[in-house]
Design brief:
- By secondary structure, the chain is mainly beta.
- Helices cover 0% and strands 51% of the residues.
- The protein contains no helices and eight strands.
- The strands form two sheets. It has a four-stranded antiparallel beta sheet, with no helix packed on it. It has a four-stranded antiparallel beta sheet with strand order 5-4-2-7, with no helix packed on it.
- The radius of gyration is 11 Å and the shape is globular.
Length: 76
């Protein structure tokens, strides 16, 4: 399952500030897994389902956009 940057209103791009869970880490649905910054505000991205954070696609410090995949989650 892809983890994407959610729609944050009129925000065009965000910077991935930090991962709260490493690749290979287990997560619960709704658990905070990453922080992104837009317009000097920090937003938390939550796991959409329980499972393992299989792969991180966007590294800390990189710029990305709402709707783009930042990681992959293996449900389970």
């Amino acid at each position: 399952m892809d983890i994407v940057v959610p729609d944050l209103g009129e925000v065009g791009e965000v910077k991935l500030v930090r991962w709260l869970v490493p690749a290979g880490g287990e997560v619960e649905a709704g658990e905070a897994i990453a922080e992104v910054e837009a317009d000097k505000a920090v937003f938390v991205i939550e796991a959409p389902a329980a499972g393992m954070l299989e792969r991180i696609i966007v590294a800390e410090g990189q710029i990305t956009h709402p709707g783009e995949t930042i990681a992959r989650l293996r449900e389970g």
